């Protein structure tokens, strides 16, 4: 699917309403649907058996920029599960597939930005191994913004769970083991 698919637009409208309820305004991040096209990104929609769209998520390649990204970053965007489908593990499953896709595309680190008014998102990301990182992106100067990162490529000789994992990319080492905005 693409970010401009009708089901994606429908779910995006719902998440924008939720952002407005929680923060007072919708997400102002500009996103071109082509940014999520493979191999430089991926956008997914999860459906229930009757074809109702339940969840979305995507990643787009980001590299060094004045906004604070690093070369090799994959930025997680539009993670959203409709309220009536929450608690089923959809976000966690989408996140796993997105991380695997970004890793296979050679991205070294998954980064995301969320907000303090989304404690359930922060809990999901931290439980999946994401750690706080320096702020980046459109909301990097906002006090309610929180940025997280998780290494996707672990250098040779560094255990997967080590704090040093993903801090550098060793040449030749292959891929290893709701975001507010």
Key attributes of the depicted protein:
181 residues; alpha+beta; Aminopeptidase; 6 strands; 23% strand; globular
Measured as a percent range, the helix fraction is: 10-25%
DSSP, total strands:
6
Number of separate domains: 1
Strand content: 15-25%
Strand order of the largest sheet: 1-2-3-4-6-5
Short description:
One of its GO terms (molecular function) is acyltransferase activity, transferring groups other than amino-acyl groups. This protein is an alpha+beta fold. The chain contains three helices and six strands; from the N terminus they run αβββαβαββ.
Task: Walk me through this protein's architecture.
This protein has about 180 residues and is α+β, with helices and mostly antiparallel strands. It has helices at about 5-25, 90-105, 120-125, and strands spanning about 40-45, 55-60, 75-80, 110-115, 130, 145-150. It has a six-stranded mixed sheet, with helices on both faces.
């Amino acid at each position: 699917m693409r970010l401009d698919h009708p089901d994606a637009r429908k779910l995006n409208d719902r998440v924008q309403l939720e952002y407005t309820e929680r923060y007072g305004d919708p997400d102002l991040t500009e996103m071109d649907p082509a940014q999520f096209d493979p191999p430089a990104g991926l956008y997914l929609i999860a459906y229930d058996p009757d074809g109702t769209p339940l969840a979305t998520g995507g990643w787009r390649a980001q590299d060094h920029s004045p906004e604070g990204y690093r070369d090799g970053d994959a930025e997680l965007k539009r993670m959203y599960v409709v309220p009536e489908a929450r608690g089923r593990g959809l976000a966690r499953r989408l996140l796993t597939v997105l991380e695997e896709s970004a890793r296979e595309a050679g991205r070294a680190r998954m980064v995301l930005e969320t907000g303090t008014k989304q404690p359930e998102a922060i809990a999901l990301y931290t439980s999946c191994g994401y750690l706080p990182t320096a702020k980046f992106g459109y909301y990097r100067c906002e006090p309610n913004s929180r940025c997280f990162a998780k290494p996707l490529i672990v250098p040779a000789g560094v255990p997967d769970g080590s704090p040093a994992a993903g801090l550098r990319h060793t040449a030749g080492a292959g891929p290893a083991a709701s975001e507010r905005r």
